[in-house]
Protein backbone atom coordinates (compact mmCIF):
# COMPACT_ATOMS: atom_id res chain seq x y z
CA UNK A 1 0.00 0.00 0.00
CA UNK A 2 2.85 2.39 0.81
CA UNK A 3 4.42 1.83 -2.61
CA UNK A 4 1.18 2.88 -4.33
CA UNK A 5 1.06 6.04 -2.22
CA UNK A 6 4.65 6.91 -3.13
CA UNK A 7 3.91 6.30 -6.80
CA UNK A 8 0.80 8.51 -6.61
CA UNK A 9 2.81 11.30 -4.96
CA UNK A 10 5.48 11.11 -7.68
CA UNK A 11 2.89 11.14 -10.47
CA UNK A 12 1.13 14.13 -8.86
CA UNK A 13 4.47 15.93 -8.54
CA UNK A 14 5.19 15.18 -12.19
CA UNK A 15 1.82 16.59 -13.33
CA UNK A 16 1.95 19.67 -11.11
CA UNK A 17 5.56 20.38 -12.09
CA UNK A 18 4.75 20.06 -15.78
CA UNK A 19 1.76 22.37 -15.47
CA UNK A 20 3.79 24.91 -13.47
CA UNK A 21 6.58 24.73 -16.06
CA UNK A 22 4.09 25.51 -18.84
CA UNK A 23 2.72 28.47 -16.86
CA UNK A 24 6.14 29.93 -16.03
CA UNK A 25 8.34 29.03 -18.99
CA UNK A 26 5.90 28.14 -21.75
CA UNK A 27 7.09 25.92 -24.55
CA UNK A 28 6.12 22.40 -25.40
CA UNK A 29 6.48 18.97 -23.89
CA UNK A 30 10.05 18.59 -25.17
CA UNK A 31 11.22 21.92 -23.71
CA UNK A 32 10.62 20.85 -20.11
CA UNK A 33 13.58 20.12 -17.84
CA UNK A 34 11.96 17.14 -16.16
CA UNK A 35 14.10 16.81 -13.01
CA UNK A 36 13.57 20.50 -12.22
CA UNK A 37 9.85 20.32 -13.04
CA UNK A 38 9.25 17.25 -10.90
CA UNK A 39 11.22 18.70 -7.99
CA UNK A 40 9.26 21.96 -8.23
CA UNK A 41 6.03 19.97 -8.43
CA UNK A 42 6.82 17.93 -5.33
CA UNK A 43 8.09 20.87 -3.26
CA UNK A 44 5.37 23.25 -4.42
CA UNK A 45 2.70 20.64 -3.93
CA UNK A 46 3.79 20.04 -0.38
CA UNK A 47 4.20 23.68 0.62
CA UNK A 48 1.46 25.31 -1.44
CA UNK A 49 -1.09 22.54 -1.27
CA UNK A 50 -0.72 22.00 2.44
CA UNK A 51 -0.61 25.72 3.20
CA UNK A 52 -3.72 26.66 1.25
CA UNK A 53 -5.62 23.59 2.48
CA UNK A 54 -4.91 24.53 6.07
CA UNK A 55 -5.69 28.24 5.50
CA UNK A 56 -9.02 27.41 3.86
CA UNK A 57 -9.97 25.09 6.71
CA UNK A 58 -9.98 21.90 4.65
CA UNK A 59 -7.32 20.27 6.80
CA UNK A 60 -5.51 17.39 5.17
CA UNK A 61 -8.46 16.31 3.03
CA UNK A 62 -8.03 16.22 -0.74
CA UNK A 63 -9.96 19.29 -1.89
CA UNK A 64 -9.78 21.70 -4.84
CA UNK A 65 -8.13 24.33 -2.65
CA UNK A 66 -5.17 22.02 -2.03
CA UNK A 67 -4.93 21.07 -5.70
CA UNK A 68 -4.89 24.71 -6.78
CA UNK A 69 -2.44 25.50 -4.00
CA UNK A 70 -0.16 22.77 -5.32
CA UNK A 71 0.06 24.41 -8.72
CA UNK A 72 0.53 27.88 -7.22
CA UNK A 73 3.25 26.54 -4.92
CA UNK A 74 5.06 24.89 -7.83
CA UNK A 75 4.89 28.10 -9.88
CA UNK A 76 6.41 30.03 -6.96
CA UNK A 77 9.15 27.41 -6.59
CA UNK A 78 10.01 27.66 -10.29
CA UNK A 79 10.08 31.47 -10.13
CA UNK A 80 12.41 31.41 -7.13
CA UNK A 81 14.56 28.73 -8.76
CA UNK A 82 14.87 30.85 -11.93
CA UNK A 83 15.81 33.96 -9.93
CA UNK A 84 18.51 32.04 -8.05
CA UNK A 85 19.92 30.62 -11.29
CA UNK A 86 20.06 34.05 -12.90
CA UNK A 87 21.82 35.44 -9.85
CA UNK A 88 24.48 32.71 -9.97
CA UNK A 89 25.08 33.29 -13.69
CA UNK A 90 26.25 36.86 -13.04
UniProtKB/TrEMBL annotation:
<keyword id="KW-0812">Transmembrane</keyword>
<feature type="transmembrane region" description="Helical">
    <location>
        <begin position="36"/>
        <end position="55"/>
    </location>
</feature>
<keyword id="KW-1133">Transmembrane helix</keyword>
<dbReference type="GO" id="GO:0005886">
    <property type="term" value="C:plasma membrane"/>
</dbReference>
<keyword id="KW-1003">Cell membrane</keyword>
<protein>
    <recommendedName>
        <fullName>GlsB/YeaQ/YmgE family stress response membrane protein</fullName>
    </recommendedName>
</protein>
<dbReference type="Pfam" id="PF04226">
    <property type="entry name" value="Transgly_assoc"/>
</dbReference>
<feature type="transmembrane region" description="Helical">
    <location>
        <begin position="67"/>
        <end position="84"/>
    </location>
</feature>
<dbReference type="InterPro" id="IPR007341">
    <property type="entry name" value="Transgly_assoc"/>
</dbReference>
<comment type="similarity">
    <text>Belongs to the UPF0410 family.</text>
</comment>
<feature type="transmembrane region" description="Helical">
    <location>
        <begin position="6"/>
        <end position="24"/>
    </location>
</feature>
<keyword id="KW-0472">Membrane</keyword>
Amino acid sequence: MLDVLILAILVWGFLVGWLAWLIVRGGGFRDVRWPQAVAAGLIGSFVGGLGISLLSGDGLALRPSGLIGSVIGAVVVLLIWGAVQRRHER
